[in-house]
Design brief:
Length: 177
């Protein structure tokens, strides 16, 4: 089977991180290989060939991807917004950050895997293995629990006809596409 055929059969992992050339090494050497090792096809919004508005593409990928991997290292507001969209829809998400990054108060209770930003030969394999294991474990558990989705369910949104957060996100995704 061709490499492109293999990619089409893998579930998608949308990677949310700043569009910053300094972070490309982290994506190329650690995050994308970890996604592939875990059985996912990695994608970032800035690497898409789609001719649509980047916001439409970004929102569709946040809503439809089987997995989202979010890098919180830069504490970037766009990444936090994208994470909020994903959490509102209840999709499986894994968070990572470079070691030494200060935790963000509102999400500090969510498991976050650290990687070595120095990207040394000794750290690359270790970080890939740890992140890949976290991706697999989260995916195998199914829909990740998160506070937004759990709270929406406890408020009765999940049981209302056409008003649950996941249904609303799927319906909006169809409009965006």
């Amino acid at each position: 089977m061709s490499a492109s055929g293999q990619a089409q059969n893998r579930p998608s992992c949308f990677v949310i991180m700043p569009f910053d050339p300094k972070l490309n090494r982290v994506y190329e050497l650690v995050l994308a290989p970890a996604c592939r090792q875990a059985g996912f096809e990695p994608e970032r919004a800035d690497t898409s060939n789609a001719s649509e508005r980047i916001t439409n593409h970004l929102l569709a990928r946040l809503l439809e991807s089987e997995m989202v991997l979010g890098d919180l290292s830069s504490r970037n507001p766009n990444v936090l917004y994208e994470l909020g969209v994903r959490h509102a829809c209840g999709g499986s998400t894994v968070l990572v950050q470079s070691s030494g990054t200060e935790r963000i108060f509102d999400i500090q209770d969510i498991r976050t895997t650290e990687y070595d930003a120095r990207i040394t030969p000794g750290s690359i394999k270790r970080d890939i293995d740890v992140i890949a294991a976290q991706l697999r474990s989260t995916y195998e558990r199914g829909r990740a629990e998160n506070l937004v989705y759990r709270t929406a369910g406890s408020l009765g949104f999940a049981g209302r006809q056409n008003q649950g957060p996941a249904r609303t996100c799927r319906r909006r995704s169809a409009v965006i596409s």
